[in-house]
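Support case: user asked for a sample of complex input and structure output to validate their parser. Sending the pair below.
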Amino acid sequence: MVRRPSLRWRVAAALGLGSVLVTSLLALATWNLASDYMLRQRLQATTRQAQVNLRLVEEAVRTNSDGLTELLTGLTTNPDSTIMLFRADEVLTSGRQVDPAVVPDDLLAMARDGTPARQRLRADGIPVIAVAQSLADGRGVYVELFQLVQLDRTFRFLSGLLIAGTVLSGLIGVGLGSWASRRALRPLTELTAAASRIAGGDLKARLPDQADPDLGPLANTFNSTADALEQRVLRDARFAGDVSHELRSPLTTMVNAAAVLRRRQAELPGTAGKALSLLTSEVDRFARMVVDLMEISRADQDADREDFEPLDVGALVRGAASLRLDPDVEIVVEPPPPLVLGDRRRLDRVIGNLIENAEQHAGGAVRLAVLHHRGNVRLEVDDAGPGVPSDMRTQVFERFTRGTRAGSRGTDTGSGLGLALVAEHVRRHHGRVWIEDRPGGGARFIVELPEAAA
Amino acid sequence: MDFSVLLVDDDERIRQALGLALADEGFAVDEAVSGEDALSRLDTDTFDVVLLDLMLPGVDGLQVCRTLRAQGDLPIIIVTARTDTPDVIAGLEAGADDYVTKPLVASELAARIRALLRRRGGPRQNISYRVEDLEIWPDEGVVHRSGQEIRLTRTEFRLLAELAIAGGRIVTREQLLQRVWGYDYYGDTRLLDVHIRRLRTKVEHNPEDPVFVLTVRGSGYKIGPPR
């Protein structure tokens, strides 16, 4: 399907075309009336003038006066006009010199037959009107050429004016159409903006109230939909918050009771002791799982709300390594300090979870590297474990995917959310996380975050 | 190391479990079930630290916190189930020294309490630091401005003292969190932000335009140049 021009341009084009049509009609009518009228006026004037002159010439011819040439000269007061007297054997001319041949024979013939005739023609490049009439005695034809330069100039000016007016009105029509349609479509533009703000997570986006009866219902419907959506999201968030709170209290009791019990584990030998140990470790794992779940559900809710600060990933990695890793683990930080804009706690969580993951599934991290890579800060966490099969490499970042990896410890103490949280936090920082093979065996977890200007 | 702790929480099971676990950690634990209860206990007995739940029936935790702060500089740690920023900030603004979120383990809480009550090590030296009209005696725990003593909480004072001892060098946020709150790792920078703000309202002539506690963008804080 051919792509149609936008509504705005269609309206503008229609309005432009319409106004061109109307104004050109008006211009045409004006042109016809005005040019007709002016030409007629001029013709009447010239005819009258020619008649007067003709009578004088007739008088002179009748009296056979010798002063005919002088008379003709005297009659041509205007240097641009020409008088010609066609007689049987000669052509007398006076005024501007024009070849008598320019006077059409038809005109002369008509005049000779006794019909006064006139015709517009060009004589030596000048528009003229020729008035021809036979003398009363029939022995000659009197022809006078009146120049129409002035009239021609007026016509040219008038036609120029009318054409310019038509073009201008067309342009104004297009402009007006474009402006008016933009005005008319502005609520739609606002609607689009508000809708995309809501889609982007700003639930408070609303349309302004519309006084216009055509637009009011649209704005109202949109706003009430947005209200309902906001209410729903808030309700969900409140529910998650309530659940979080409700679970945290019993968990606090459980983990502390478990801590007290663990201290006295020696007092409970045999089966009871074993059961106690199971219970306390599962309570800890359960607590971790709930906390991680809270964190993930919170991450789902509030999009990019907090301010990011510039962070040195190298320092974060060194800090994490100094606490959680053996000193012989290789740490590489490429200078200059790799800075990203981020949330310290979350990035720390990303590093910590990757280290923990390597511990649980691959016997611990063997190398941590922070590198600069094509405008990104690249964090690599290497382990020397069995690696991650390629069909599992996206799956492991999903929630509660665990235990299926080769080399997993039977006594898995993870929450099943560690790598999902990594993926969630990395996504929040507009970064990427994936798994590659480590050269020499094992897995390499790679996180890339957009580098911040130093 | 027998610190006395007042544990204020309306959940009886939490009080019992946390009380047992804290006792295991070597603390003498007393319990209060409500804000009113806590305030009346504090009128009669003295404690080294108060562990305060924010969600209490009647007088809520924030109110208790403000009341205690108005009375003195008794260390307060907020124990809350709410981890959202506004709740944490509100607690710190009300005057708390630190906060922990549920579910918390007693050992973790014990570390926080010990860090809060820790005294500066090393031999006492009666050195004072001067910045314009502000005079700080780190070992005495005393601050004077224009000869008048300014009352700071223990945490606020330690924050100021760390900056003063650094003598105009930058102290990073991590260093402050580590030295003042004992976070061996990355603590919550909101904690630091609120305390710096509170410190400024007390020591600065114009907190909007600080001359003593200066921010070094992107790295940390430093004390203003000495006179």
